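Q: what sequence does this backbone want?
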């Protein structure tokens, strides 16, 4: 039996996931592998490095810093979330990411990003928190239109959630047969068709596969939600999700709101802890 952890994205809804993961770390719960998409990768990597509270801490401190996330950053650099600040200065200097602990933890950690030419989600095994790993984390969380495609080994990538919102099926294909899935939307949520596709086609005309994928993204997502609910009913997967819509902005600037969503995640994890331990021990 291989125990897996599957992490949905969702921008600042990812603070819910951080609350869940911190409780799991405090309880000493371990997994053989994990796969994260977008915020699930960018925040979830701290589970492998064992840094309880780190994503909440730096998000609360820098959420209003224009270097972190701002229209100014988008205009000046092409990235709403400043790439150099978020993926170099912050983890290297301001709130140091523990690369040594990350590398020494035997849990496999995968980040998924969408290849802009093929429209397929590609997964990278992050081994040691290297610059290459951080390029994949950045790519996984690079939202179309407000982010530049991230170049890695001659190919270009954007947000993994465009083509694989919740990578439970990929984890199962990798042999993980006891998966805990952390979602950032409540039970029954279904995504609506994307708006502004005409503008997206114009802005991303060099990468037609991305608007094509965005046009059917709601169908992919809703199908995944139905499959996840079925797996949950059958006891194949264990799902942790918010009890209600989190109602937090994608670029939330209010530290109190970030704290609220984080503590909702903690509350949900603590509430389901006995059932979770039973699931993992079966």
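A:
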């Amino acid at each position: 039996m291989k125990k897996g952890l599957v992490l949905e994205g969702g921008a600042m809804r990812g603070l819910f996931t951080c609350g869940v993961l911190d409780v799991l770390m405090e309880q000493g719960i371990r997994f053989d592998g994990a796969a994260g998409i977008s915020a699930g990768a960018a925040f979830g990597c701290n589970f492998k490095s064992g840094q309880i509270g780190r994503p909440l801490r730096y998000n609360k401190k820098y959420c209003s810093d224009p270097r972190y996330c701002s229209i100014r950053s988008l205009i000046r650099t092409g990235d709403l979330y400043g790439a150099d600040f978020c993926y170099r200065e912050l983890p290297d200097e301001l709130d140091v990411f523990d690369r040594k602990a990350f590398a020494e933890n035997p849990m496999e950690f995968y980040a998924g990003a969408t290849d802009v030419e093929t429209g397929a989600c590609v997964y990278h095994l992050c081994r040691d928190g290297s610059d290459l790993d951080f390029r994949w984390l950045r790519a996984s969380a690079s939202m179309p239109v407000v982010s530049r495609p991230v170049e890695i080994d001659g190919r270009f990538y954007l947000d993994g959630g465009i083509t694989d919102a919740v990578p439970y099926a990929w984890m199962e294909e990798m042999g993980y047969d006891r998966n805990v899935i952390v979602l950032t939307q409540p039970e029954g949520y279904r995504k609506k068709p994307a708006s502004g596709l005409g503008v997206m086609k114009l802005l991303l005309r060099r990468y037609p596969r991305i608007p094509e994928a965005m046009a059917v993204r709601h169908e992919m997502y809703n199908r995944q939600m139905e499959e996840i609910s079925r797996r949950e009913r059958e006891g194949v997967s264990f799902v942790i999700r918010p009890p209600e819509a989190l109602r937090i902005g994608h670029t939330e600037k209010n530290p109190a709101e970030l704290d609220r969503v984080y503590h909702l995640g903690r509350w949900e994890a603590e509430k389901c802890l006995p059932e979770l331990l039973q699931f993992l021990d079966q």
